[in-house]
Amino acid sequence: MTRVLVARQDNLGDVLLAGPCVRAVAAHASHVTLLTGPHGRAAGELLPGVDDVLTWRAPWIDPEPPPVTAADTGAFVELARAGRFDRALVLTSFHQSPLPLALLLRQAGVPWIGAVSEDYPGSLLDLRHRVDGDPPEPERMLSLAEAAGFPLPPDDHGALALRRPLPDTTRLTGGGPYVVVHPAASVPARQPSAAWSRRLVRALVDDGHRVLVTGAPAERE
Fold first, then answer.
1. Is there a contact between 211 and 174 (Cβ–Cβ < 8 Å)?
2. d(CA 166, CA 68)
3. Which SS3 state, helix, strand or coil, does residue 197 take?
4. Where in the chain is the domain with CATH 3.40.50.2000?
5. By the 8 A CB rule, do 76 and 107 touch?
6. pLDDT tens digits, residue range 44-82?
7. What global pTM score does this model have?
8. DSSP 63-118
9. CATH no., domain 3-147
C-alpha cells in the first residue's frame, strides 16, 4: 500500500497539465491525493487517477497570497500529517521553487519527497530531478514521475485527459467536432493580444476546423 501526494497549486490549466504525471503515479500507487490551490481544485477533481483532493492556499504561489502565519502553516502540516503519505511529488512551473512546500511536508513526516529543483535542496528532497532545456510542462512533470519510479503504463497515450463521462455540452457547442480557443490567461505575459488571437482563429478555420472561443463575461469583447 503506497499513499502518494502529488502537489500542483496553481490555476485550472496548470492542474490539467499535471494529468499525465498523476496517471503515471496512480498506475503504481494504492492511493493518490492531489494537493491544489483554491483556483485549481475544480480541475483536480476532473483528473483520472485522483482519489481525493486537498486544497491549501500557498503564500508563495497564490496570485493573491495570504499572510504567512504559524497558525496557517501549522494547520497545513497537520492536514498533511493526517494523510499518512509515503511519498510526495511537488510539481511546479520552471520559475517556482518546490522547497517551501517540501519543508512543510518534511515537518508533516513525509519520508520521501521528489521535485524538479534548480536550487540546492539540502535534506528537503530525496529526489532532486533535473530537466534539460524547456520542455512543455506536461512532459516536464511526467519526467519527474518517471524519475521517481512511476512510469506511464504501455497502454496510456500520455496525452491530457479528463474523467469520463464528460458532461453533455451540445447546447453550447452544437454537434460535431470542434477546437476550443481560450485567449485569456491569469498572467498577462501568457495572454496573446486580440490581433494574435484573431489570426490564430482564422488559421484554424482556414484549415477546416470549427472553432469555439471561450472566456469570462468580462472578456467577451
1. no
2. 38
3. helix
4. 3-147
5. no
6. 999 999 999 999 999 999 888 999 999 999 999 999 999
7. 0.88
8. SSPPPP-HHHHHHHHHHHHHTT-SEEEE---TTS-SHHHHHHHHHTT-S-EEEE-S
9. 3.40.50.2000
